[in-house]
Amino acid sequence: MKEIDLQSLENYLQQAFGEQAKLTGIGEIGSLEEQGMKDFGYGKPLLVHFELNGKPNSFVLSTMKGDKYGHQFYWDRAAILMFQYDCAARMDKHVKPMGLGYIDSRGRLIPVKEPKEFFLLTEKVEGHDYFLDLERMRKGDVREEDFSLAKEFARWLAKVHSVKKKDEDLYLRRIRDLIGHSECIWGLIDAYPYPYEHFTPEEFQKLEKRLIDWRWKFRKFTHRLSAVHGDFHPWNVLVRDNLDFSVLDRSRGEWGEPADDVATMSCNYLLFGLYDQPKLSGPFEKLYLTFWEEYLSITNDKEILKLIAPFYVFRGLVIASPEWYPNHPVEVRKGLFRFIQNVLEDENFDYMKINKYME
User: Which residues form the Aminoglycoside phosphotransferase domain (predicted)?
Assistant: First the structure.
């Protein structure tokens, strides 16, 4: 565990409370025995003594350790501490928060003062949104490079997914999140209008119950934990000439099930194809098959066909959503719901015969 030197702690006090703050000692919570002015590692609460304008003060410095209960990453733990900082002050008799901050890679304690919202800066890259290519294809302008680009996407995903990690708990967390997270299946279902005219509450309930059976299937596949993008769809890809592209908005963590990324992109080929017919055909069927076949030819990942169905349900619910995609014709939305219902009924997804899931 990284050591935090006492000078860093005193620097934090001066940034948070003013230059007159002076560190006088630290102690363990529990025994409260004085540890003296020695370095310490973070991970458990510590009692910090300091003087401010000559008057003695103290506070408890707390951090969180990672665990398998959804706290594997520092941003998980940050969310918990932010919640405590924001809410504790509004509860009668609760101990009052005195400060919020983070520990950087050098062990320095950096205060975060009066946070309300956070922001992110990223580089600006050139290119056009990939969904514009799909709209062009819908209008009849289909080019050979469209299929070459689908192959390039598949090759890129195969390379990303080739990086593996052994962590059974993290794999199971990602499956748990797929089904129960507010941004994923359960949350999407709750966000639909109630009742919804194109998919009844009874149909949603049946879908949820079926997914519980699928959740237990994944316990046999924890060895598949891989690097993933997590939101690889046509609105998150910027395309340039010569099959060059950049991706945006990596989501839901660095690790997961490869089927997530494969389902996300290929499901959108189905979406655009449904605008012309109630099944997948023509250039979008060719695009879909090109993408799948290139991915499988590189990875030889036959297990993915055993696991992809719930990921198709998730992505199908996204692109069928009247909130996220309000302008779909009714038949497009109904086609997506047919796919969502039928895809869970096969133990192995038959990617070559996707239209049997459209019946």
Answer: 118-266
CA distances, 333 to each of 225, 265, 326 (Å)? 32, 18, 10
Q: Are 270 and 339 in contact (CB under 8 A)?
A: yes
Q: Which is nearest to 37 in space by CA: 25, 21, 51?
A: 25
Q: Which two tokens stand for residue 189?
A: 């279902």
The Cα–Cα gap between 133 and 136 comes to 5
Q: Which letter, b or e, does each residue of 265-302 get, where b requires 16 or more Cβ atoms within 10 Å of its Cβ? A: bbbbbbbbbbeeeebbeebbbbbbbbbbebbbebbebe
List pLDDT tens digits, range 18-32: 999 999 998 876 544
pLDDT (tens digit per residue) in 100-149: 999 998 889 999 988 899 888 889 999 999 999 999 999 999 999 999 99
3-state secondary structure of 153: helix
In the predicted structure, residue 284 carries a pLDDT above the cut 70: yes
Domain 128-358 has CATH 3.30.70.260: no
Query: 57-109, pLDDT tens digit by residue?
Result: 999 988 888 888 888 999 999 998 999 899 988 888 888 999 999 999 888 99
**Helix segments in the chain, DSSP class H:** 6-17, 74-88, 130-138, 144-161, 168-180, 185-191, 201-217, 259-274, 282-299, 304-307, 309-320, 330-343
DSSP β-bridge partners for residue 110: 102
Q: At 137, which amino acid appears? A: M
* Percent of residues in the chain assigned helix, strand, coil, to nearest 5: 50, 15, 40
d(CA 21, CA 23): 7
Task: Give the residue extent of every domain in the chain.
Answer: 3-112, 128-358
